[in-house]
Batch of 4 targets.
Target 1
Amino acid sequence: MVNSNDRARADKDSFLYPHVPYRGDFTPGNVVFNANLQEFAQRVNVLCNLETAGKISTEEAYQQIKDLWKQLKQSKKELGIGP
């Protein structure tokens, strides 16, 4: 039996980390890149919120987002997505 705390946690996780099914051309590379892109977006969102709340500096947020962007670009290159 599922208790109310477990249900509340699942609802919170669904809200904070929504999962949207992939709807593009179904290739393994596209699906993996889509997952990487969704993770990038979620992490950028968290960094922006931390910076807005004053928990990290603007420069730190920028550097971490820049590093995440480099990782995303590298995954795109390795997966052979796009031009």
Note: The helical segments are 4-16, 28-52, 58-79.
Target 2
Amino acid sequence: MAAVVVAALMSSCSSDDPAQAKQWQQEYCTELGSWQDAKRTVASSAADAGGGQDVGSPESDNVESAGRAAIAASKKLDREGIEHGDSHILDDTVNAVGGDIGAEGRAVSYCDGSGFETLVDSAG
């Protein structure tokens, strides 16, 4: 009986369903792309206004919300073990949302490698 419980717990740690894994990857890449779009909108608005971004603005709230959604989606991939090679999608996403352009590039590469390159923009 204990072996059955252990087997059940172990099977919940990674996705054995390729279709489910693809769905989670698509969700992640969609969220990452939404965060990139929100970030770009704020940067564009700040450039048009000739100043920095207003931290309390609705646009910056959208960036924060989109960043949290991307991190949440990356947690699911991390929890399910759906990564490529040496990627650390959760760490890369958290660091990207924190402003690390290299981490954003790695997160974008993850989406490229997953077949969802059209959902994200190249980092930079």
Note: The radius of gyration is 17 Å.
Target 3
Amino acid sequence: MSATPLTSAELDRALADLPGWTVRDGRLTATFTTERSAVPSLYLAVAAAEDEANHHAEVTILYGTVGFALSTHDAGDTITALDTAMAARLTSLVTARGARPANG
């Protein structure tokens, strides 16, 4: 996958398929809610997926919320196809474990 910044049109198309994700401060972001007791195992699964893809999100955890922020450092901290692919993977992973987008 390319580390080329997405155009606005490409990003808009990608966001249409990423429920709960938005662009904030030049990064692809989303927050998911879950039971607080589910957060540790959810994060372990996230970390394993990130390591496998060699692409890592900034992850924030507060009580029963898990937030993600993605950008590609090798592309000047812009949003690339690597980020949209990881966002889709993270969404699938966390929703399979019962988390839901915080804004939906």
Note: The two ends are 29 Å apart (CA to CA).
Target 4
Amino acid sequence: MSESVTNPDSGAQANAAPAAVPATATDAAAVTTVTAHFKLVFICVTVITVLTLMASLYIGIFVEKPTEAAKSAMDTCSTLANLGFGAMVGLLGGKAVQ
């Protein structure tokens, strides 16, 4: 009692040649190359951002009674981490636009 359902077009589709995808100028523009220089800059910005964020968190968490200098250092590290994040977004956005 096994019945099989067949699609009448399945044989025609199996024998048809696959459609060729035309190569246009927009396809060539969609390819983004990442150079070694870009990788170096992005990795350096990422490392500096992470280090300043960790320093800011360390001062905020582990220094019980921070002095004015410690507060200033924490604010500076926090600002540098924010700027680094913005730089990473800018680098990626600029690379995506190219």
Note: The longest helix spans residues 68-97.
